[in-house]
Amino acid sequence: MFWCKKSGEEETNKLKVEKLPGRKLIPEPVRKYLVVQQKKDPNLLVNFRAVIRKNEKGENSFDIRLFDESEATVREVVVKDYISLDEHLELIFYEGWFDKKSGHVELQEKRTLMAKPEVPVFSENEIWQKVEGLSQPGSTVFFYLGGSPACGGPFSRGAAVVELNPNYPVERQKKYIMYTANVDGLKPVNKREKIFDSDRPKEIAKWIKARHYKPPSY
């Protein structure tokens, strides 16, 4: 029996896949470039993440893409690394390269970075009145959140959605159902996570008010 070694050509043609870094916070040279040179509001960059890959411009030089992680979550897009955005170019706000040693940065703005819209912050009493004002079975009211597991929206953490239970007053069914939901643009998405149900609008208003606030400045 004769054994043959694999040819050099076969070895050369083996697919070698470079493992790219996962998403991370914006590298400091890039963040400084955006805030100091481009005069971007740092509050608008809070949810931004970067994906990078080595390029041929130098030992410390990397290609970079910046995206809003909360937007990706709302749209159920998992961004693992630089090339995973090839199929979701619409999520990229900035693309270019930087040198982490020299601090040189070149970026192209792919999407306009817009300030979050101004929306009111309601008092606990106002929230209670809006919840109690629901009159049609299945009707809803929502409030933006600054603290919750959800994502998106003017306060960055989705919204609380209160529904007038369409099955109320069936036995063991409570009047209101409380959900959290991601927000796409200004509207909660249909996919919601139930938190609790209650017959007491003041209990709901208290829960919401504890999380209904504008996030602190960074």
Explain this structure to me?
By secondary structure, the protein is of the alpha+beta class. The protein has five helices and eight strands; from the N terminus they run ααββαββαββββα. The longest helix has 10 residues. The chain is elongated, with a radius of gyration of 24 Å. The N and C termini lie far apart (71 Å).
Topology:
Blueprint: H1 8-12, H2 28-37, E1 48-54, E2 61-68, H3 69-74, E3 92-99, E4 105-109, H4 124-132, E5 140-144, E6 159-164, E7 176-184, E8 187-198, H5 201-209
Antiparallel strand pairs: 1-2, 2-3, 3-4, 5-6, 6-7, 7-8
- Annotation field: number of helices: 5
Number of structural domains: 2
Percent strand equals: 25-35%
- Average residue pLDDT: 90
Instruction: Report strand order across the widest sheet.
Output: 1-2-3-4
**Rg measurement, Å:** 24 Å
* Strand runs, count: 8
Instruction: List unreliable stretches of 5+ residues.
Output: 1-16
Q: Any idea what the shape is?
A: elongated
Distance between the termini: 71 Å
The H-and-E topology, N to C, reads as: HHEEHEEHEEEEH
- Would you tell me the structural class of the helices and strands? alpha+beta
> What proportion of the residues is helical, as a percent range?
10-25%
Largest sheet: 4 strands, antiparallel
